[in-house]
Amino acid sequence: MNVNDTEIAWSILQRTGYQRTADINKADVVLLVTCSIREKAEQTIRNRLQQLTALKKRRSSSSSTPMKVGILGCMAGRLKTELLQQEKLLDVLAGPDSYRDLPRLLREAQGGQRASSLLLSLEETYADIMPVQQVPRARSAFVSIMRGCDNMCSYCIVPFTRGRERSRPVSSILEEVQMLSNQGVKEVTLLGQNVNSYRDLSEQQFSGGGSSSQQQQQQQQQQQQLSRGFQTIYRPRLGGLRFCHLLDRVSRIDPDMRIRFTSPHPKDFPDEVLHLISERHNICRQIHLPAQSGSTRVLKAMRRGYTRETYLDLVTNIKTIIPGVSLSSDFISGFCGETEDDHQETLSLIQEVGYNIGFLFAYSMRKKTQAFHRLQDDVPPDVKQRRLQDCIALFRQEAARLNATLVGSTQLVLVEGVSKRSAAELCGRSDGNMKVIFPKGDEAFQPGDYVQVEILSSSSQSLRGRAVIRGSLRDSVPP
Ligand code: 5AD
Ligand code: SF4
């Protein structure tokens, strides 16, 4: 998300004549794109700000152009007063919906004032801003399709820092994907805080009415749009074009382009989305399915809208409709009131599902959230850490087991570039998003090529193999 925000901010600044430098000592402006989701992310930014403050002081004593420092994104809005008091050398603060204001804010800062713009918007999706890719001519790109979140999970600050859910019109997304395809991009990841809640309301399919039969129809529609057995905590929106439609249209643009999406909520996987993933050869058979906990009691306290059982039923449904699917997940250890039994349930869920990739966090309490107001952050830090380590160890073990089952198979790999460890090897990703490393060999494979790779060995984090033949997405056969 932050990579995409950086690309959007860049695009806006570039139009106004700003240029990028790789040498921070030469920069007139340094902007940090920030995230508030966990305490650790904020601490990293605070440390960076301290370094910048020292650099800024040095610069002001030795150079005629003073350096301007700004904070962009979630931390700007969340900590406005605190940041301005503590970080006296901050010049600019711009919230996630204020990047269009950056040229004006920087002009004000250049005039010696502190400038901030922090209001969250109900509409801003930066639909017309083409992000400037961080790596020029990269073969993979992110395309933002929606922003914000209405879910209000009790631990999460995102709805407060990034605002309400809003979707970018289908037409502007299709235009951007087409443009990326013309540039030779081979993999697009559709991006959003709640990517599969996508709903383009500018394209109404029906308008809501008041009669009881219409209400019944709406209720029925609502049920069909969710994963079986799931509920929404908030009142869902109706009408408009939904994720399945968008995914269908995006995947038709370029048969040689892989489509991924992140980060979804488990509630928004109606069967039609799963069937589309299964049937369309260029939509990767890989689903991120953030569980957060394996205990129904904790899930209720988190306000996730599902139980352990409904989550596991969804996993079964996904595995049935999309054989060979790769699953990944997010988990939080040590949430308010989590007991040792709850923790064991999380471990058993991790084992039962079998994920290839996991993002695991110790709970950190965030102000403004429901948990902050109503629950006790009562799991001691050392217990949180121990439970987190238990989860990490089990994840590694399970990922290693799953990856070992791929030894002997042939995977279609999209080449990303030379391996970091050895110039004689190439590195790429399988359809399931596993890192695959293989010797360069005689064929001069380039980033953006598809190669059939026979897998010879595996670890918990990557696969190794040998190139068999140049491949194509079009002739990839589902397992
Ligand atoms: N503490 C720890 N982890 C959190 N996440 C969100 N809020 C918190 C928090 N307060 C994690 C969730 C989410 C991921 C992006 O970050 O697992 O899915
Ligand atoms: Fe946060 Fe929950 Fe929204 Fe994800 S779905 S961004 S965890 S509130």
Question: What do you see in this structure?
Answer:
By secondary structure, the chain is of the alpha/beta class. The chain folds into 4 domains: 2-117, 3-Layer(aba) Sandwich (Rossmann fold); 121-284, Transcription Regulator spoIIAA (2-Layer Sandwich), CATH 3.30.750.210; 318-405, Transcription Regulator spoIIAA, CATH 3.30.750.200; 410-476, Nucleic acid-binding proteins (OB fold (Dihydrolipoamide Acetyltransferase, E2P), Beta Barrel). Helices cover 36% and strands 20% of the residues. The chain has 15 helices and 19 strands. The chain has helices spanning 2-15, 39-62, 74-78, 80-86, 102-110, 158-161, 170-182, 212-225, 243-253, 271-279, 296-302, 308-321, 340-353, 370-374, 381-404, and strands at 29-34, 68-73, 92-94, 115-117, 140-144, 146-147, 166-167, 187-191, 199-200, 241-242, 258-262, 286-288, 326-333, 357-362, 410-418, 425-429, 435-439, 450-458, 462-470. It has a 5-stranded mixed barrel with strand order 15-16-17-19-18. The chain has a 4-stranded parallel β-sheet with strand order 1-2-3-4, with helices on both faces. Helix 7 (170-182) runs parallel beside helix 9 (243-253) and helix 13 packs parallel to helix 15. The longest helix is centred in the N-terminal third of the chain and has 24 residues, at 39-62. It starts with a helix and ends in a 9-residue tail after the last strand. Iron/sulfur cluster binds next to helix 6. Iron/sulfur cluster is lined by residues 149, 151-153, 156, 158-159, 193-194, 265.
